[in-house]
Amino acid sequence: MNGVAARFARRPLAVVSLGYLLLVVAVTLFAGRIAPYPPDRQDLGAALTGPSRAHLLGAGELGRDVLSRMIYGGRATLLAVLVTMVVFTLAGVPAGILAGYRGGRFDRFVLTSADLMFAIPVMIVLLVVLAIFPNNEVAAMAVSGLLGAPGLARVVRSATLGVREELYVRAAVASGLRDTVILRRHVLPRVTGTILVQVSMFGAGAVLLETGLGFLGLGTTAASWGNLVGEASRNLGTLPWLLIPSGVLIITVILAINLVGDGLRDALAERQNGVTTGTRRPARTPPAASTPDDTPPAPDALLEVRDLTVTLPIDGVPTEVIGGVSFDLRPGEALGIVGESGCGKTVTASALLGLLPPGAAITRGGVRFRDTDLTRASAAQARRIRGGAIGWISQDPIAGLDPSFTAGAQVAEAVRLHTGCGRREARRKALDLLERVRLTDPPRVYRSYPHQLSGGMAQRVGIAAALAGDPALLIADEPTTALDVTVQAEILDLLRELRRAGTAIVLITHDWGVLADLCDTAVVMYAGQVVERAPVAAMVAAPVHPYTGALLRSDPHHAVRGEPLPVLAGAVPAPADRPTGCHFQNRCPRVTDGCRDRPIAIRPLPEGDRTARCARIGAI
Amino acid sequence: MIRIVLRRLAVAIPVLLLVSLITFVLADLVPGDAARSILGANATDAQVTALTEQLGLNRPLPVRYGSWLAAALHGDLGTSIFTGEPVSRAMLDRFPATVSLIAGAVLLAGLLGAGLGIASALRGGWLGRAVDVIALLGMAVPGFWFALVLVTLFAVRLPLFPATGYTPFTDSPVGWFESLVLPVLTLGIPAAAPVAKQTRDGVLTELGRPYVHVLRARGVPERLVILKHVLRNAAAPVVTVLGIVVVVLLGGTVLAESVFVVPGLGGLAVSATAAHDIPTIQAIAVLFTVIVMVVNLLIEMVYAMVNPKVRT
After folding, report:
1. Cα-flanking dihedrals φ and ψ of residue A504, to 5°?
2. Does the beta-carbon distance from B145 to A120 stay under 8 Å?
3. Chain A residues inside the 8 Å CB shell of B284
4. Could you give the CA distance from residue B106 to residue B135 in angstroms, rounded to a whole number?
5. What is the distance between the alpha carbons of residues A70 and A54, in angstroms, rounded to a whole number?
6. Confidence of residue A296 (pLDDT cuts 50, 70, 90)
7. In the predicted model, what is the mean pLDDT of chain B?
8. Which residues in chain A (386-445) have CB-CB distances under 8 A to chain B?
């Protein structure tokens, strides 16, 4: 709990709230010394008057001092709330811990009673109690704690379940420690935070409940906060002021309890995630921009990506995520973009459609498709091209479909958008498309919801929808990563078939096998830059950039039996941490001082149709 | 769908038995004489004996409960010890006012909450913070206090609406509407907070899902992405929250009907409690539980309609 306490202390709002609550409790405890009058002292001359020197917050019925009644009223109100919280905790926590630790029949009992309790109108049950025990507020509040306990038990149960599965607890069980010891030493400390949060939230509700009962005149007959509001309501016409002191007190106390609870919850979440929310890293200066790539475009290109540079705000500073990306694609060609995660492959693919994440900006270069500059196209123009001449195939086939609509409805929606045909016609065309992607029973798939499809089937549906606008170019973002190996091969066959029919393909992948299978050209990306671009066969045979070489060597397809698979040590630097000079310098076996000083430009190689971004090309 | 109804019934019956039993057991738990405790110290022995007889406290608990249950199954929920009227009659008379109130409040909470939630999810910024503040205040401001503030402002200072009372719809639709405005605001505005929060979280979660990116990449106009796809998927959990809101509102009617002197079930419950009218309060507890059950069932059916994973 220590870590949580320290994290809680860093939240000013929560600390102030806790301080306020402690102050209210202290004032209540010492009511006799602090309050200017006894709670029932009458001053008939001052009855129902606003604030004055004698009565700082005014006087109510019979001239009783409002401030004093608020101070004394805290006794009844806070006692009732305390009773509620104690009953709630004592009934809920042991039940929850036991249910989570033991499971079995008791666990089912706790869960079922939590379900049942949600259906009970608590307020009415409390009225029943008060009808039988007149004005016995403590009894009523205890019952409310009891009714809430199964809810607490359920939360504690799932927290306990989580702790029980952790290694050190399982080790403690295996080493034969007694259950009571394990529960007290290992489980209880870990679920205390969760319990505190729940109890504080329930306490806030208890204040509302107690004051409500007091207001109705069903609660205690002594001074209490709720009774004060009840008194105010009887005198609304004469002295509406009476609403203010009691109302402000009740609202601020409940707010404070909630804020303490929120603070606890956030402090807990932080400890579990190990991240600090709410505090900001100091502002950074953006790292140096990349050097432009001005390779001349191919004259007959379908897609021309030139010097594409995209920034994203990271800690509020626009940071280059991809820089100077260039490549061309002729009609019917297939190009693969390869690299580790975090190298900018997906950002590049999204930029090809003009669909960048919020806050992203294209700061240099652009994407031309046929005669349209996609990065500067109007929204309507871009929409016609997206899903029309350019189709997109997603990485996660099932999550790529809207779970609320049938597969067929989604393909038909795409058909209608891009052909403008009617419903009946769209349905027919959608069924044709499902047939075209080699689904075995198109009418059944048409009627199926995404959760009823296998990954492979869902990916075929996704491809069918991408084909709705009869695209000249398909962009596939790791289309087979989420699929089984056999299904992968089938989807690749389908893509190859589409290629033969004349569709150009941009394939994002980290699988050399898939790339070599399907593509003519390979583009290797590292930390936001293109580091090498070459015909696939030439690249695989003789990689030029050290990163390409390392990627190829660590490809499991080339593994030699009996020898360990070479692994590329280190990790791709995050966009904010990319070094000046060559981005690969920290992982490169051939690095020299020349690699570190200045950004490395991408250069054409003598053997033609190849480029690479390495300062040591001649030396290797 | 039938499975859902059956499963709900399987929960409903034990809960109803539990709630009715609680009310009987409580009367037995009173130390000494329950009737004397109810009537207070000043009651004569004759009064105590009469009440003991009327409540059947001289018979053993199982017998008493059994006969109540048998009568209840025939629609006889007992007789008020205060008015001498059959309890079922009193409840029937007061049903329309409470239903009007709750329906209005749910409608307001749903529309206001969904509107605020969607707006804050799509626009963010100050609207997002406004939802947070409203949610925090909605938890902290006591409903009865808020009601009194509304009365002071819009009935006493600015006499726009009646401060108290209820006009049945059949008497005057306009009067009915006017008499409901303040109580519905009292109950509906705080109830909008959880709806707004769930709507915002739901819309933001859905916007981050892969299918939204795919739909955009497919050229689906943003308006359709939001209205047809995102909202549809964000709706299911909001429906669940609305169900919880109804249960909370049922408790809220107890306070709201007292402030606004609405002749509904909540007000009846309070006066029955004050008068220690046990048969009436018992019957109301059972009726409220039935209402909660029915609402939960409806919610689950709507949920199943929105969510194909539950339906198929």
Report:
1. -80, 150
2. no
3. 124, 127
4. 16
5. 16
6. low
7. 85
8. 386-388, 391-392, 394-396, 399-405, 413-414, 417-418
| Contact state of A394 with B214 under an 8 Å Cβ cutoff | yes
Residues A200-247 pLDDT 10s: 889 998 999 999 898 888 888 888 888 888 888 888 778 888 888 988
What sign results for the dihedral spanned by CA atoms B97, B98, B99, B105? positive
Of A229, A396, A465, the CB nearest to B145: A229
Residue of A nearest to B273 (CA): A131
pLDDT in tens, B155-167: 888 888 887 888 8
* Token couple for A236: 């609304």
Nearest Cβ partner of B211 from A240, A350, A402?
A402
Contact B306 A128 (CB under 8 A): no
Which chain B residue lies closest to A465 (C-alpha atoms)?
B218
CA A570, distance to chain mean position in Å, is 27
Could you give the maximum distance between any two Cα atoms of chain B, in Å? 84
Length of chain B counted residue by residue: 312
- Strand, helix or coil at A36? coil
With helix as H, strand as E and coil as C, how does chain B read? CHHHHHHHHHHHHHHHHHHHHHHHHHHHHCCCCHHHHHHCCCCCHHHHHHHHHHHCCCCCHHHHHHHHHHHHHCCCCCECCCCCCEHHHHHHHHHHHHHHHHHHHHHHHHHHHHHHHHHHHHHCHHHHHHHHHHHHHHHHCCHHHHHHHHHHHHHHHCCCCCCCCCCCCCCCHHHHHHHHHHHHHHHHHHHHHHHHHHHHHHHHHHHCCHHHHHHHHCCCCHHHHHHHHHHHHHHHHHHHHHHHHHHHHHHHHHHHHHHCCCCCHHHHHHHHHHCCCHHHHHHHHHHHHHHHHHHHHHHHHHHHHHCHHHHC
Whether the per-residue pLDDT at A38 is higher than 80: the answer is yes
Q: Which helix (H) or strand (E) holds A484?
A: none
Interface residue of B153, B273, B298, B305 to substitute, partner A, most A CBs within 10 Å: B273
Nearest to B285 among A124, A130, A247 (CB): A124
B34 Cβ under 8 Å from any chain A Cβ: yes
Contact criterion met (CB < 8 Å) for A119 and B38 = no
Across the interface, of A125, A215, A385, the residue whose CB is closest to B22 is A125
CA of A138 to nearest chain B CA: how many angstroms apart? 14
What's the whole-model pTM score? 0.80
The rounded Cα A409 to chain-centroid distance in angstroms is: 29
A208/B contact by beta carbon, under 8 A: yes
Q: Which residues 46-105 of chain A have a CB within 8 Å of chain B?
A: none
Amino acid at A101: Y
First to last CA, chain A: 57
Look up residue B246 and give its amino acid. Answer: V
Residue A368 CB neighbour total at 10 angstroms? 18
CB atoms closer than 10 angstroms to residue A19? 12
A133 interfacial to chain B (CB closer than 8 Å): yes
Q: What would the pLDDT profile of A257-289 be if each residue is shown by its tens digit?
A: 989 988 888 887 776 655 444 444 444 445 555
Q: Check CB contact under 8 Å for A131 and B22.
A: no
Mutate to test the interface with A, among B218, B249, B250 (most CBs of A within 10 A): B218
B55, two tokens: 């409540």
Neighbouring C-alpha atoms within 13 Å toward the C-beta of A150: 17
Q: Which pLDDT belongs to residue A291?
A: 63
CB atoms under 10 Å from CB of A306, counted, come to 21
Long-range contacts formed by A549-556: CB under 8 A, 24+ apart: A550/A587, A551/A338, A551/A339, A551/A340, A551/A512, A551/A524, A552/A512, A555/A511, A555/A512, A555/A513
B308 and A449 within 8 Å at the Cβ level: the answer is yes
* CA gap B197, B201 in Å, rounded: 6
